[in-house]
Amino acid sequence: MSRFSRIEACQAMASTGMVPVFYNNDLETSKQVVKACYQGGVRAFEFTNRGDFAHEIFAELVKWSAQECPQMILGIGSIVDAGTASLYLQLGANFVVGPLLNPDIFKVCNRRQVAYIPGCGSVSEIGYAQELGAEVVKVFPAGNVGGPSFVKNVKAPMPWSSIMVTGGVEPTEDNLTKWIEAGVTCVGMGSNLFPKEVIAAKNWAEITRMSKEALAIIAKARQK
Questions:
Q1: For residue 136, is pLDDT > 90?
Q2: Nearest 5°: phi and psi at 18?
Q3: For residues 100 and 110, what is the distance between their CA atoms, to the nearest angstrom?
Q4: Residue 75 — pLDDT band, cuts 50, 70, 90?
Q5: Residue 26: strand, helix, or coil
Q6: Peptide bond into 171 cis (omega under 30)
Q7: Nearest Cα to 117, choosing from 38, 21, 215, 211?
Q8: pLDDT one-digit tens code per residue, 29-47
Q9: How far apart are CA 49 and CA 10, in angstroms?
Q10: What is the helix (H) or strand (E) element at residue 47, kind and residue range?
């Protein structure tokens, strides 16, 4: 069962402006990455379902995080079907993210009052996701769908839209500022926030530094 409500999850995404997206098949590495992000100010973190037995890693991560990073809201990503969503909800996922929109996942998540953030690639999909109950919609792959201009153009006729963008997001002032100015609620960031060489070197302090820097850029851009 989730520790945080769907509203708390979405508020954390909106207030911080960034959701790290990460997968590793090693539990200790995953713990250290979550903790490094937490120390950097991250409060919503997406672990992705991208490997065999990923659910076993996630289950342990949820239990560990409740003790070591009590304010971290852990969610699961890369979910494409209702059965897998149900599995992760049972393991304590606080939100569910997918690369696509599957109405069956809404049924599962809405029943448990857990936020489902589906991947959308068109205005019609965004509207359909909102009709089904999405608090936040994910534009993916954001860089290919149309970039910041797409978000800006969606927000013009649909200003109530809360949009997360994933794909094409970089932890640089130029990139993050463009997304924030376009009107995104938050950005999802994966490999660009977790360089392979940094993970391999177990340089957790660097991940904390990059997280702090990205969040500071987002906060600065919001003040403009």
A1: yes
A2: -145, 140
A3: 17
A4: very high
A5: coil
A6: no
A7: 21
A8: 999 999 999 999 999 999 9
A9: 20
A10: strand 44-48
Question: At which residue do the structure tokens 């659910």 appear?
Answer: 55
CA–CA gap between residue 75 and residue 62 (Å, rounded):
9
The C-alpha atoms of residue 47 and residue 63 are separated, in whole angstroms, by 14
The DSSP bridge partners found for residue 116 are 96
In whole angstroms, what is the distance from residue 164 CA to residue 149 CA? 14
**Can you read off the two tokens belonging to residue 50?**
């991208």
DSSP letter for 172, please: S
Alpha helices in the chain (DSSP H): 6-16, 27-39, 54-68, 82-90, 103-111, 123-131, 142-145, 147-155, 173-182, 196-200, 204-222
Residue 74 β-bridge partners: 45
Whose structure tokens read 């590793």?
24
Cα separation values, 210 from 72, 152, 206, Å? 17, 27, 6
Record the tokens describing residue 63, joined without a space: 């239990």
For 50, phi then psi, to 5°, come to: -125, 15
**Across-strand partners of 45?**
74
Tokens 């939100």 sit at which residue? 95
Main-chain dihedrals φ then ψ at residue 62, nearest 5 degrees? -65, -45
What is the percent of the chain with per-residue pLDDT over 90, rounded to a whole number? 99
Token output for 31: 């713990």
Sheet of 186-189, strand order = 115-117, 95-97, 73-77, 44-48, 18-22, 186-189, 163-166, 137-139, 119-120
How far is the C-alpha of 133 from the C-alpha of 47, rounded, in Å? 23
pTM: 0.97
